[in-house]
């Protein structure tokens, strides 16, 4: 390491000191805030609910603007998610708002897997963030965060209880995202029915172990209002972008023959409560919870799945370097093994084939040996025959010669006789 | 049935709000949460002993961080350079700040100061490493930020220029930490001397390409004017004091001389207030951000690149560094699979070729042997035929000769019979 001795004195004792005047670090929160304002904020809302339940209208009402609106048909094959991003500005605050719609939710005959595209979308956003976080050269501070900060779950105003689809879906989502359940089209339920409905819903959620988002009560500035709002869940909302004249004011409302339902009238519906909680009071907390709780859970599961651990078998903490090096060694070993296996397979194949071919060669050799022997045999026979013939020929020649010498002496006698 | 794919990258549209929504309150929410969390800041002071480092810290934070019980670095010199930290908790206006002051007793005080910056570098790196490990754990809980956010480097007021040690130190640390050079004990320089000294220092800093902390430009023109004014004053000439003196009825921090009082917070006497405003009141957050986004990320990417490439291959392209080590391993795995497939195909090819060759050889060999065998057979057959022919000829000859002999024999027999007859007849005559 260093040429000089390194003696790092780590004093962890924290002394409380009093200041003798105004130093000025009380401006730190302002410095932080001004930085974030310059950077801009980002907020992502997921709306889950059946087709036609009022998701788009509610978004338009909440943000006082007309977002892109395509009326969805009821004939979607499966649920798909449609994210849309908008740049909004209010005084000096820039907000990158992404609204994700679940198109086709609740329309299929078999809704067993309706929740899946939603869960997949949420996981994909976490995964993208995790990948960015794990990069070697990364830029987290200007990364467009697409993780869902809040899921507004739209409950049908049946007045009775939650549908099983609602329970199943919310149960699958509660560990991945902050859920605020809302009762849609609340202008179709009377006050007394609404009260009973809310109690029924909350008790069903509790008995099924569904964790919905609780407005935080640890900060004294907002604990009171948050606590009281928690008691009003689920919010019964009405959305409208149409304006109706009531008295001498023009308000957003829905006009019926029997009266006007005013969106921003707290005795008509909980819209104002929702807006208050979602946007004006707890937006930052929702972002924090998503990052500190839901994302961390996803990250932890993902890393454990990939085989990362925090401590080795001796319970000594791993440093990042050790972890990566271990993974890398394992990985390289794996690759090497595969290579070895393949080579070995080839060596075996070659051996086998060699043996086969040798066998064939031997057979061939044997065959020809046999033929050669046969041939030798034949040759021998021919030789024998030749010898025999030769012998006979010789014998015959001898006979001939003998006969000839005999006949040579005979004719003399004849001549003699003739003379007489 | 309509099937629509999920939009990959959402296009961003502008929208105007037609009424008050309320997210303008978001900054307040952020404010509240940050106050609740509290703040941390680590400040490092480096310089030879006796340059007034402890006094300056006490003056900056208006507290007795260094005192008789907690002596400053110049009182604690040991044989070798040490790097030591002290943590204090200070509160102001509801804001809690955990301030860590890191000092380096013994820096530059030895006869041979080679490598006296190494302990400092090691300290900074070890804090980055701690943060990296904490950030990379599977179970992440609170990640305390102990990284060094700012390093105040004290230059002795020689009036001439930087010393070799100053240059060496700043060069080695400028890409690891925010370096802010200060002219210490500025009350030994007259304003003109100070101006010249500052110019000389800045010239040398530029010559040696030392990157000291730079103030970021803001969108606000007014702020930018102020920032430019501060930039012209760099490096800041400071004076510190632990003593409060009464001047013209006011109680001020200052240094009492027979010829007057040098006031610490007087802008005409020194740049202390500029330093304090910049360091604490306006740019403390930016110092933390630059440390996090630039210095720490540099450290991290170097560290991870070393782990991934095992420090062997220095020819890695930039493209490979934009992935996480895991993604890189996956890519390498993919590459390896392709390589193996190719190798397998090649080996297969070679194998097939060799087998074909051998088989061909075998075939040729067989053909050759067949051919020879055929030839020999024909040869033998020819011999046989020849033999047959010879025999036939012989047989014919023999048959002829035998027939001839038989005739001769017969003739002889006839002749001898006639002779016998004649003999008998001859006698009668």
From TrEMBL, chain A:
Domain Septin-type G, chain residue ranges per copy: 39-305
The keyword Transmembrane helix is assigned to this record: no
GO molecular function annotation: GTP binding
Keywords annotated in UniProt: GTP-binding, Nucleotide-binding
Source superkingdom: Eukaryota
InterPro entries: G_SEPTIN_dom, P-loop_NTPase, Septin
Record's keyword annotation contains Cell division: no
Any Pfam family the entry gives: Septin
Region (Disordered): 400-420
Similarity comment: Belongs to the TRAFAC class TrmE-Era-EngA-EngB-Septin-like GTPase superfamily. Septin GTPase family.
Protein name per the record: Septin
Source organism (scientific name): Labrus bergylta
TrEMBL record, chain B:
GO cellular component, one term: axoneme
UniProt keyword list: Cell cycle, Cell division, Cell projection, Centromere, Chromosome, Cilium, Coiled coil, Cytoplasm, Cytoskeleton, GTP-binding, Kinetochore, Mitosis, Nucleotide-binding
Location (main, coarse): nucleus
GO BP, sorted A to Z: cell division
Keyword check for Nucleus: no
Keyword Nucleotide-binding: yes
One function term, GO molecular function aspect: GTP binding
Coiled coil: 326-411
Subcellular location as annotated: Chromosome, Centromere, Kinetochore; Cleavage furrow; Cytoplasm, Cytoskeleton, Cilium axoneme; Cytoplasm, Cytoskeleton, Spindle
Positions of the Septin-type G domain: 37-306
InterPro entries according to UniProt: G_SEPTIN_dom, P-loop_NTPase, Septin, Septin7
PROSITE patterns assigned to the protein according to its UniProt record, in alphabetical order: G_SEPTIN
Taxonomy, superkingdom: Eukaryota
Pfam families, per the entry: Septin (PF00735)
Family listed: Belongs to the TRAFAC class TrmE-Era-EngA-EngB-Septin-like GTPase superfamily. Septin GTPase family.
Stated name of the protein: Septin
Lineage of source species: Eukaryota, Metazoa, Chordata, Craniata, Vertebrata
């Amino acid at each position: 390491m260093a040429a000089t001795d390194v003696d790092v004195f780590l004093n962890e004792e924290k002394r409380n000191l009093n200041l003798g005047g105004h130093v000025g670090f009380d401006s730190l929160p302002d410095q932080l805030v001004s930085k974030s304002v310059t950077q801009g904020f980002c907020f992502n809302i997921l709306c889950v609910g059946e087709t036609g339940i009022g998701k788009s209208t509610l978004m338009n009402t909440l943000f006082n603007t007309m977002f892109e609106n395509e009326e969805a048909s009821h004939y979607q094959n499966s649920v798909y998610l449609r994210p849309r991003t908008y740049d909004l500005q209010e005084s000096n605050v820039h907000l990158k708002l992404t609204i994700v719609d679940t198109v086709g939710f609740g329309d299929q005959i078999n809704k067993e897997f309706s929740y899946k595209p939603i869960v997949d979308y949420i996981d994909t956003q976490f995964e993208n963030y995790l990948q960015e976080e794990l990069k070697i050269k990364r830029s987290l501070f200007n990364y467009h965060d697409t993780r869902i900060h809040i899921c507004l779950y739209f409950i049908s105003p049946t007045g009775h209880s939650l549908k099983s689809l609602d329970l199943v879906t919310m149960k699958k989502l509660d560990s991945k995202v902050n859920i605020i359940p809302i009762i849609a089209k609340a202008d179709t339920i009377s006050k007394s029915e609404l009260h009973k409905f809310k109690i029924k819903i909350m008790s069903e959620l509790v008995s099924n172990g569904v964790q919905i988002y609780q407005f935080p009560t640890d900060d004294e500035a907002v604990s009171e209002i948050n606590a009281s709002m928690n008691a009003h869940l689920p919010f019964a909302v009405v959305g409208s972008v149409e304006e109706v004249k009531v008295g001498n004011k023009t308000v957003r409302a829905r006009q019926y023959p029997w009266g006007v339902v005013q969106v921003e009238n707290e005795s008509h519906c909980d819209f104002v409560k929702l807006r208050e909680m979602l946007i004006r009071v707890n937006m930052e907390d929702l972002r924090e919870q998503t990052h500190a709780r839901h994302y961390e859970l996803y990250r932890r599961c993902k890393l454990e799945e990939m085989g990362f651990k925090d401590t080795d078998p001796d319970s000594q903490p791993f440093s990042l370097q050790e972890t990566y090096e271990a993974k890398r060694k394992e990985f390289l070993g794996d690759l090497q093994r595969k290579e070895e296996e393949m080579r070995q397979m080839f060596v075996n194949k070659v051996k086998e084939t060699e043996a086969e071919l040798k066998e064939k060669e031997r057979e061939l050799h044997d065959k020809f040996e046999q033929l050669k022997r046969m041939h030798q045999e034949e040759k021998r026979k021919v030789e024998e025959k030749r010898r025999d013939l030769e012998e006979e020929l010789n014998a015959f020649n001898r006979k001939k010669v003998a006969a000839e010498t005999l006949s040579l002496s005979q004719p003399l006698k004849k001549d003699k006789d003739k003379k007489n | 049935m309509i099937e629509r794919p999920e939009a990959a990258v959402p296009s961003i549209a502008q929208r105007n709000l037609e009424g008050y929504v309320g997210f303008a309150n978001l900054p307040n929410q952020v404010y509240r949460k940050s106050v609740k969390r509290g703040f941390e800041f680590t400040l490092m002071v480096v310089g030879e002993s006796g340059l007034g480092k402890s006094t300056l810290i006490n003056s900056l934070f208006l507290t007795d961080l260094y005192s008789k019980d907690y002596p400053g670095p110049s009182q604690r010199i040991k044989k070798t350079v040490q790097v030591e930290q002290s943590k204090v908790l200070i509160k102001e206006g509801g804001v809690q700040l955990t301030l860590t002051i890191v000092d380096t007793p013994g820096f530059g005080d030895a006869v041979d100061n080679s490598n006296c910056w190494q302990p400092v570098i090691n300290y900074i790196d070890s804090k980055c490493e701690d943060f990296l490990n904490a950030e990379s754990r599977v179970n992440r809980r609170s990640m305390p930020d102990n990284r060094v956010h700012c390093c105040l480097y004290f230059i002795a007021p020689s009036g001439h220029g930087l010393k070799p040690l100053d240059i060496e130190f700043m060069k080695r640390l400028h890409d690891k930490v925010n370096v802010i050079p200060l002219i210490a004990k500025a009350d030994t320089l007259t304003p003109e001397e100070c101006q010249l000294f500052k110019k000389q220092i800045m010239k040398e800093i530029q010559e040696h390409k030392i990157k000291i902390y730079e103030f970021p430009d803001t969108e606000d023109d007014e702020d930018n004017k102020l920032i430019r004014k501060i930039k012209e004053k760099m490096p800041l000439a400071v004076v510190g004091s632990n003593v409060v003196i009464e001047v013209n009825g006011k109680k001020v921090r200052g240094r009492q001389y027979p010829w007057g009082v040098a006031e610490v917070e007087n802008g005409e006497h020194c740049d202390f207030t500029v330093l304090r405003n910049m360091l604490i009141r306006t740019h403390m957050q930016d110092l933390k951000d630059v440390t996090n986004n630039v210095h720490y990320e540099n450290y991290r990417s170097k560290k991870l690149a070393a782990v991934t490439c095992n420090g062997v291959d220095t020819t890695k392209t930039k493209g490979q560094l934009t992935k996480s080590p895991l993604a890189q391993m996956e890519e390498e795995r993919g590459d390896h699979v392709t390589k193996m497939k190719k190798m397998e195909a090649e080996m297969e090819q070679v194998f097939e070729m060799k087998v074909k060759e051998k088989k061909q050889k075998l075939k040729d060999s067989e053909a050759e042997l067949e051919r020879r065998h055929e030839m020999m057979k024909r040869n033998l057959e020819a011999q046989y035929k020849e033999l047959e022919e010879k025999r036939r000829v012989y047989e014919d000859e023999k048959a002829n000769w035998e027939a001839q002999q038989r005739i001769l024999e017969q003739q002889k027999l006839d002749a001898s019979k006639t002779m016998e007859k004649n003999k008998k007849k001859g006698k009668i005559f």
